[in-house]
Amino acid sequence: MNQKTLGVGLLVVGGLLFLVSAAADTIGVGAAPGFGWKQITGVIAGVVLAAVGASRLRPANRG
């Protein structure tokens, strides 16, 4: 698997994890009302995965 494919995959998975975690109560998958620790963990993990994926998409510095 090349770096671009890995980057796109991580970006998509991270974005989906972020969206599902942030909207868990709205879409009915939240365990309790309010923004709980599981949602916070999911949002942070989603942002980190998306950031790592985005960094894989940047061209390497060949200087």
Task: Please describe what this structure looks like.
The structure is a single chain. This protein is mostly helical. The chain has one domain. Helices cover 71% and strands 0% of the residues. The chain is built from three helices and no strands. Helix 1 packs antiparallel against helix 3. The mean pLDDT is 90.
Distance between the termini: 25 Å
Largest beta-sheet characterization: none
Q: Helix coverage percent of residues?
A: over 70%
Shape call:
elongated
| Percentage of residues in strands | under 5%
The tally of domains stands at 1
In N-to-C order, the SSE pattern is HHH
The number of helical segments is 3
User: Would you identify the regions where 5 or more consecutive residues have pLDDT less than 50?
Assistant: none
Radius of gyration: 14 Å
Kindly summarize this structure in a few lines:
The protein is built from three helices and no strands.
Core attributes:
63 residues; mainly alpha; 0% strand
Strand and helix layout:
Layout: H1 3-22, H2 24-27, H3 37-57
